[in-house]
Amino acid sequence: MEQAFERLTERLSALGAHDVLMSAGGDVILACARTDTPDWSIGIEDPRDRQRLVMTLPMRRGAVATSGIAARGQHIVDPSTGRPPTGLLSATVIGPSLTWADVYATAAVVKGADADRWVSTLANHAGVLVGTDGAVRTVSASL
Q1: What is the pLDDT along the chain (143 residues), one digit of tens a residue?
Q2: Phi, psi (5° rounding) for residue 66?
Q3: Which of 27, 28, 75, 127 could form a disulfide with 119 if both were Cys (CB 3.0 to 4.6 A apart)?
Q4: Contact at 8 Å (CB) between 20 and 8?
């Protein structure tokens, strides 16, 4: 999806400034080239109730990827144990690249309760983590 997004924004730039957002499977990539438009509002679903949002993020550029149990159930395996990870219901990572946001979100789910510290070490990335108790934790972007 990231390559398709880049090609689309390149083609649209020849026609002038455009805001572009692509979404697939819970992953979002966006860029705003216009200065007269508001931010996109990106919702992060509650993994316990997909009709509810745990947070909305105003964004003009970047990528958002979420991994967890909400859409596909318990499908992630911790490679060190061969078992489903524990500690998080979902992890959302926000950053400049959709590919890496997706990789980091899945890795954060595997890290479980220790994901906060790990996500905080990722340069130019932030996170929204939902624990098994439903608590929502945010991790600021590391620069």
Answers
A1: 889 999 999 999 889 999 999 999 879 999 999 999 999 999 999 999 989 999 999 999 999 999 987 666 677 888 788 888 888 999 999 999 999 999 999 999 999 988 999 999 999 999 999 999 999 999 997 65
A2: -125, 135
A3: 127
A4: yes
Q: Are 21 and 28 in contact (CB under 8 A)?
A: yes
Q: Give CA–CA dist 28/36, Å, rounded.
A: 22
Q: Residue 108: what residue type?
A: A
Judged by DSSP in three states, 80 sits in: coil
Q: Is 132 helix (H, G, I), strand (E, B) or coil?
A: coil
Query: What would the two tokens of residue 86 be?
Result: 């524990």
HSE of 100, CA atoms in CB hemisphere, 13 A? 12
How far apart CA 79 and CA 55 sit, in angstroms, is 30
Backbone angles phi, psi at 131, to 5 degrees: -75, 170
